[in-house]
Amino acid sequence: MFKKILIANRGEIAIRIMRACRELGIRTVAVYSDADKNALHVQHADEAIHIGPAASKESYLDMEKIIAAAKKTNADAIHPGYGFLSENASFAAAVAASQLTFIGPSAESIRLMGDKAESKIRMKQAGVPTVPGVEGIGAENDFKKAAKEIGYPVLVKAAAGGGGKGMRVVQDEGELSEAIESARREALHAFGDERLLIEKYIPNAHHVEIQVFGDQHGNLFHLFERECSVQRRHQKIIEETPSPLLTPELRAEMGEAAVRAARAVNYFNAGTVEFIFDPDLASLRHGSGQAFFFLEMNTRLQVEHPITELVVGLDLVQWQMRVAAGERFPFTQSHFTQRGHAIECRLYAEDPASGFLPSTGKLLQFSEPRGPGIRVDSGFTIGDEVTHFYDPLLAKLIVHAEDRERAIQRMQAALKDFIVHGVLTNIDFLQAVLAHPDFANGEVTTRWVETNFNWAPPSEPSFEALVAAVLAEVTVPGSRFQVSGSRYQVPGLNEVDPYSPWKTGSGFRMGAN
Ligand code: ADP
Asked: Does residue 196 sit in the same domain as residue 161?
């Protein structure tokens, strides 16, 4: 097993990986930028090494600096987490070329799955169902012909795409030229690659993905699905497992398709095969009809991996290290079952009233819920600064309960107990989704938030939030509202006392709501 691992990431995922390392007796190295000098992930590591300015491009995305840091600290492996360099085939290759182990799949698997057009062709060859469409066309007339054959509406996608960039829904032929042109421009600008593909647009789609896992000895299996249809602008917000829509037959079929997909690129370590799922097609089909289609494969650990960990009872991150070190899986597919129901909510520092723009500032209060079946993966603590440099994900709140109904109740109660002041959050938004009958019925499609969910944020901050803000301002120096010397001054509270009961948002609630 490795003796020391460098974690090429920050925030909650860096801490999650460090926890796994600690349990395995592996020392950890954090990397940090100027903006993260005092960040929680740095405090969690056994060693930390500075890698540059706040801008990711010059720090967390700088391959050379990260590999040099690993060399300097005598680490024997690098865990990339998610985002940043995790799906960069050149990075994986450079790590291996430096006599270090990349904790993930091979550079070749990453490369093959990184291209939407190439991976789709490969999947078709492997017998994995893909959305009807055409890859590798250049001339506009060919696009027209292809779109007519597929039937409108169609979706134009960038082959090198990611994060929904370069994607356009086209309703009819009149919109096609314009969509192709703008998608090309966006793709060229974002990825330096203007290749496009075109496919059938499936309007009532659910996003259902399958976790796969493999060792380096040819053992490969799936760990069931995650339903991730609650999305805003193609970004997942709430994920759950099991999916409320899958029958045991569909689950087995999708699982097998995912394993086939992974096998086609000689996959090992953790990966996720994303499918687009149409429940109408599923209820209509008579054996041969297709209800799910390959979207893409993420060749890394996913943000939402904890719900699978809870339901399957496996520490995915520890197994990532064990298989990277060459260990053989002692399991077979039939070893795994789904126990209970798990849900994850992504808590973002953002302002729902201004179109969900990131909200920055100092965390005057940050009190995480606790209790049976509650897990919080977060990268912040009270007093931390939320900056505009990185993703505004504050925490992942994950619950596990015996069934879906109880998991929803547990999540609602836990969200109520999650107290954040100093930045705005999407907690009210998450509560409104969880309370919606469409969510209860499992009828949320990937477009639902934008098209069916009429939710307006409360226009006034709550009384509780206002009182907490005032109290926190008295106790935290250098903050926005200057109330020192006012009647809110409490003797002794000007000293920063992290244990003062007045610093806990619930301290003065006295059980009242
Ligand atoms: P990206 O890599 O840019 O995230 P994906 O191919 O993974 O692009 O698609 C992102 C999201 O767009 C999916 O989660 C799904 O909601 C939607 N989507 C993708 N392809 C289709 C399609 N053919 N029909 C309907 N929705 C789609």
From this structure: yes
Residue 158 Cα to ligand 1 midpoint, Å, equals 11
357 shares its domain with 441: yes
Q: Which residues pair with 347 in a beta bridge?
A: 395
Q: Please give the tally of structural domains in the chain.
A: 4
For residue 207 and ligand 1, the question of a CB distance below 6 A is answered with yes
What spacing in Å lies between the alpha carbon of 340 and ligand 1's midpoint?
29
Question: What confidence tens digit (pLDDT) does each residue in 260-287 have?
Answer: 999 999 999 999 999 999 988 876 654 4
Cβ 53 under 6 angstroms from ligand 1: no
Counting from 1 in the atom list of ligand 1, the atom nearest the Cα of 131 is 23
393 and 442 housed in the same domain: yes
Residue 300 among the catalytic residues: yes
Q: Which residue has the least CA distance to atom 19 on ligand 1?
A: 295
Asked whether residue 318 is domain-assigned, the answer is: no
Ligand 1 centre to CA of 164 (Å) is 7
Q: Is 132 in the pocket of ligand 1 (CB under 6 A)?
A: no
- Which pTM value belongs to this model? 0.89
Same domain for 9 and 96? yes
> Is any atom of ligand 1 closer than 6 Å to the C-beta of 213?
no
CA dist., res. 341 & res. 349, Å (int) = 26
pLDDT above 70 covers a percentage of the chain that reads 89
Q: What is the CATH number of the domain that holds 422?
A: 3.30.470.20
* Three-class SS of 372-440: CCEEEEECCCCCCEECCCCCCEEEEEEEEECCHHHHHHHHHHHHHCCEEECCCECHHHHHHHHHCHHHH
Tokens linked to 270: 């953790």
